[in-house]
Amino acid sequence: MPAFASVLPTRAATIKQPNMNRAHALIIDDEPDIRELLEITLSRMGIACHASANIADGKSLLAEHTFDLCLTDMNLPDGNGIDLIKHIQQHYPKTPVAMITAHGNMEAAITALKAGAYDFVAKPVDLNDLRNLVDTALRLSDDHCAPEKQLTLLGSSAVMESTRATIDKLARSQAPIYISGESGTGKELAARMIHDNGARREAPFIAVNCGAIPSELMESEFFGHKKGSFTGAHHDNPGLFQSANGGTLFLDEVADLPLAMQVKLLRAIQEKAVRAVGANEEIAVNVRILSATHKNLAELVQYGRFRQDLFYRINVIELTMPSLCDRRDDISELATHLLNQLAASHQVTVPAIQNDAVQALQDYGFPGNVRELENILERAMTLCENNEIHAYDLNLPQTTSTEANADLDSKLDLTEKSSILKALQQTGQNKTQAAKILGISFNALRYRLRKLEIN
Fold first, then answer.
1. Is 104 left (phi over 0), alpha (psi -120 to 50) or beta?
2. Count of beta carbons in the 10 Å neighbourhood of residue 17
3. Which domain holds residue 350?
4. Is 331 found in the same domain as 315?
5. Are the C-beta atoms of residues 220 and 277 closer than 8 Å to each other?
6. 183 and 251 together in one domain
7. What is the tens place of the pLDDT at every residue in 25-56?
8. Please, which of 16, 260, 306, 389 could form a disulfide with 300 given CB 3.0 to 4.6 Å?
């Protein structure tokens, strides 16, 4: 293959003057063969290419032209590709950047994604992966693909303004997102907004509750199966990954996945391919992974209940959904909106919520967050008189210590488990000696081992 650098000026090179109707791509790589491969591939896709061998020339081209996409190597003669990503994020935020990384260097890829890279492609470059990446990136600038009716998170509080801004930014990336937060805070709605506002908006959004799938059916549900591969497999099933191909797969309550399934899921994410049960070959899939849980994944990793490698793979960027207690100023707006929705669904007149009811809602703890607020309002709408909702119509639960005690018990169990594991490690798994260190009897230790499910 001829060295493309031989026909490049010292400063930078530009392929023939591009047609203004064509997409423009900037390629920055100090390897002439890689530049040539990328230029040929993109040119065949109808994309006008500009090329540079270093960061300085790349920045000059960025200042002279408007680009729809940038592909940059990680290690360049005059600097690091991460610094270039940050520069583009600051000065050209609408230009998606994809990082070219060494094969198997997932740490570098994750660093690039956290710095703001749209996506990454590994050397040696797989042309199908490259084409998929470019096609998806170019759709970011296609305003005609925007959904007619956009989902949104209500609330004018500062924390909600910040959350919406973060979601808009995450929608322009392909990085795996981990959405954390209490039950009822709108984690699935946030995932749908990331999908709807991103480049994959026209492709499927597939949501799955990981805790609702029987463990013996998980592999078939996620990866599909062939007809006759097991009893009851009367026809081929494509599985969730293939159904979401080109789009987004949302793994809700991902913490409920058993460890054996976590291993298989990690491989599917890393290899971007799945093998259906009963199939002989893998099938390539192009899926963005979003995940969520109300549990503390970091703690589950610490206690061996969730794989650390999978945690780092799905938690490239974390989005924390605020609880209703963190945005009490939004409660009045949310209540009005929910009452309008409920009245429309029941085909009744919208009830008027009175000031005493709003105050009572703002003083309430809301362990169930927005989902609980909706349930409370639906009950109040049914029971209220004269189509007016007062505080007594809400029937808010009396404050009790039950939930607080349950949360405390859970935290104490984790602390106790940590102490027991540490004692067992110190004694080489000798339970008698561990019991002495802990200051409890041998039988008490055996009871705690069973209670805390320590093997």
1. left
2. 7
3. 325-394
4. no
5. yes
6. yes
7. 999 999 999 999 999 999 999 999 999 999 99
8. 306
CB 438 within 8 A of CB 432: no
Is the backbone peptide bond immediately before 96 cis, with ω within 30 degrees of 0? no
Where is average pLDDT lowest: 120-124, 193-197, 252-256, 337-341? 120-124
Dump pLDDT digits (tens) for 140-175: 765 544 555 567 889 999 999 999 999 999 998 999
Q: Is residue 236 part of a domain?
A: yes
Number of domains making up the chain: 4
Burial-class residue 252 by CB neighbours within 10 Å (0-12, 13-18, 19+). buried
**Whole-angstrom distance, CA of residue 152 vs CA of residue 168:** 11
Across 262-289, average pLDDT: 91
Q: For residues 206 and 203, what is the distance between their CA atoms, to the nearest angstrom? A: 10
Residues 136 and 175 in one domain: no
Cβ pair 277, 229 in contact under 8 A? yes
- From 300, 320, 340, the end of a domain falls on 320
What is the CATH classification number for the domain harbouring 313? 3.40.50.300
Q: pLDDT at position 433, please?
A: 84
What percent of the chain lies above the pLDDT cut of 70?
Answer: 88
At residue 188 the predicted structure's pLDDT band, cuts being 50, 70 and 90, is very high
3-state helix, strand, coil in the chain (%, to 5): 50, 15, 35
Indicate whether 402 pLDDT > 50: no
Amino acid at 45: M
Tokens of 368: 């169930």
Segment holding 106, helix H or strand E: helix 106-115
